[in-house]
Amino acid sequence: MSSKKPLILRISPVNPELDKIRIAADIIRKGGLVIFPTETVYGLGANAFNEHAVRRIFEVKGRPQQNPLLVHIANKEWVYKLAEDVPEDAELLIKKFWPGPLALVLKRRKGAIPDIVTAGLDTVGLRMPSHGVALALISEAGVPIVAPSANRYDRPSPTKVEHIIDELSAVDCIIDSGQTFVGLESTILDLTLEKPTILRPGVITKEMIEEVLGKEVVYSQHPAPAFWALDRRYNLRSKLYLVVGEPSKVRARIKELVNEFKGKKIAVVVTEENFDDYGVEVHVIGSRNNLIEVARNIFDIMRKLESSGYTLVIFEGFEEVGLAYSIMQRLKKAATAIIRA
Ligand code: TXA
Ligand code: MG
Q1: Residues 138, 48: contact at Cβ < 8 Å?
Q2: Which ligand is nearest to the CA of 186?
Q3: Measured between alpha carbons, how far is residue 335 from residues 11, 155, 185, 330 in Å?
Q4: Closest by alpha carbon to 172, among 330, 36, 34, 301?
Q5: Quick check: CB of 125 below 6 Å from ligand 1?
Q6: Which of 26, 128, 143, 325 is the most exposed place for a label (fewest CB within 10 A)?
Q7: pLDDT (tens digit per residue) in 81-112
């Protein structure tokens, strides 16, 4: 397929228009690249069986080939075609959370999918997204779709098409369905290790998984193959300071920092509870009592502020438990400095 200007399809997230879905599905089947929405973030999709198309994904993203891709499916039967020795834990989690933002790493069925997808590992990462457009696209394509987040390798994941229209234009088709719902990439859980291990935290938290499995779940630690954690920091044009500690102290420390850097183009990003007159542009990201909202907006606000030309963005941090743990992992990847209040 040519790398001319991509075809842009606007598709309703609530009632996906089947005629447009079919156009995109056809592009996928024939080996093209399609950017599409999932409930978490936008993905850069290709036919998982087409080695050439999958190779193009690595090129377009600038992603190292040793970093495997998640395989997106719309039907549970694919789990058994692509993986083997599927443990009972997987069945329990699939029943509870699929379709939804939980990817499972399972033992790969040899020969089921080209090696390039799994970077030659003996595991495969499977995900059934819950976004209506994603499900319709995968079903219509009739093949599993590999889809990394639709950003350049060193950039934050996109939750809106406008984030990436300049960043990833060498694709065949872009489906625009507005802002994604969850805002953080899926939780990735590896079920091939001694204990169920979270390789990437998301909105389905450790606590939620433990409740379903009735056993301890651990976070991966180096040198376990948690590629996500090893990825580089996000390359943002703004400097980002993350201020952590007790909320009232954070508020005072942010004020000090604003003073210290007077003259720079500064923005402050805080929760509703810490809203105040900081003497510079203030953005409210959501409420501490509604972290779902914070998660949904985090990447959008990072990208918005850098494109508005702020040289320094000061973010309020969160205590690292539950969903706030997942949010903080993204903020830390974006931070130039972490400051304890
Ligand atoms: O929410 C999401 O998961 C989004 C949307 C588009 O579905 N996709 C996404 O893909 O975030 P990506 O490629 O940006 O991140 C997937 C992560 C990578 O860090 C990769 O290393 C890890 O999943 N991964 C994939 N397969 C794996 C495997 N077999 N073992 C360990 N890690 C794996
Ligand atoms: Mg990614």
Answers
A1: no
A2: 1
A3: 34, 13, 18, 9
A4: 34
A5: yes
A6: 26
A7: 999 999 999 999 999 999 999 999 999 999 99
